[in-house]
Structures are given as C-alpha cells and as structure tokens.
Amino acid sequence: MMTRERLKGAYSEGEALAIYQELKDTGNFVDFCETMMRDEDYQVARNALWGLTKASNSELMQLKPLQNSLIDLAMTTPNSSVRRLSLNIVERLKMEEGEVRTDFLDFCLEHMADVKEFPGIQSLCMKLAYRMCSFYPELMGELRRTVEAMEMDYYSPAVRSVRKRIINITQR
Fold first, then answer.
1. Is the Cα torsion angle 5, 6, 7, 10 positive or negative in sign?
2. Model confidence over 140-152: pLDDT tens digits?
3. Which residues contact 100 (CB under 8 A, 6 or more apart)?
4. CB neighbours of 26 closer than 8 A, spacing ≥ 6?
5. Cβ neighbours, 10 Å, residue 72
6. Measuring CA to CA, which residue among 113, 107, 106, 128 is closest to residue 159?
C-alpha cells in the first residue's frame, strides 16, 4: 500500500501517473481510495485522488461501491482540489436512475451556476446535473432553463462549451 508520507508532497503530472501505475500494479483501487480520500491532510487526499483520475474508466469502475462516499466528499470538503478530483471520478462512474441523489443534484445545480466556483468544478457539476436530469424529462426542461439563464460573460470557455453542448442536446 502506498504510504501517506509519499502522498504528502506536491506532485507533478508524472508523479500522479506514477501513483496510478503503482495502484494498477497492486490492483487495490478501492482500499487505497477508501483510506486516502478522507485524509485530514488535504495534500494527501488530493494526490491520492489525482493518481486515481489517471485510471481507465474500466479500472475506475472498481470504485463504484464508493460512489456515494465520493459524492459526500465532493459536497462536504472545503478543499476545491479535492472537490474537483472527487467530482471527476464520480463523473466517470456509471450512474443509474435509482442512484440519483436529490441532494447531489441540488449541489450540482448550485455549483455549476456559482460564478465564484472554479471552472473545472462548474463544468463537472453541469455534466453531472445533465446526467442526473436525463433520467427525468420533467427535470431536463428545468435544467435547460437554468443553463440558458446563465450569463455567459462570467464563465470560462470550458463552462461555455459544456453549456452549449447541453443546450444543443436538449433542443432535440
């Protein structure tokens, strides 16, 4: 198991890939994530989650049992890096209709439109809100109206791009 001390440093992209490779070699994604994602040292949690984001989608599916824990982490952490990385993992996990959490949908709707939120978090929240609303046609109209009402002067190109895709998809 990768040590907490190793995860304390500031890591580069190459080091995040090395964390992933070590995890891949052990195949212990779930235990590692469960142990490290809530570490009281945000640098440890951040680096652990960053390494996990390098995994393939099929490898990440091992984390499906931790989906609600990752959602809870995203909604409660005061650390924006941990929030973004946990949302990134949740966004890559398959979500079924019966798994939609209204508290998480509300969180995503709030954070996607929050001009004070980081663009990466806004974009991920918008994608996740779309995915959750896609199960319920009555919510899709509400999402579309919310997305259309967003004043684009305040958002980054990445957020504008996700918004445009959602509007185009929901027009069909």
1. positive
2. 988 998 998 888 8
3. 132, 135, 136
4. 1, 32
5. 16
6. 113
Predicted TM-score (pTM) of the model is 0.91
d(CA 44, CA 90): 19
The one-letter code for the residue type at 63 is: L
Strand, coil or helix: what is 37?
Answer: coil
The two three-digit tokens of residue 124, written as one number: 């991920």
Residues 6+ apart with CB under 8 A from 84: 118, 120, 121, 124
CA separation for the pair 2, 93 (Å, rounded)? 23
Query: CA dist 82 to 12, 36, 72, 87, Å?
Result: 16, 11, 12, 8
Cβ contact 118:80 at 8 Å: yes
Backbone phi, then psi, for 64, in 5-degree steps?
Answer: -50, -40
SS3 136: coil
Q: d(Cα 83, Cα 60) in Å, to the nearest integer?
A: 17
Residues written for the chain? 172
Torsion of Cα atoms, 66 then 147 then 151 then 108, to 10°:
-20
pLDDT in tens, 58-102: 999 999 999 999 999 999 999 999 999 999 999 999 999 999 999
Please name the residue that has the structure tokens 């490290």: 36
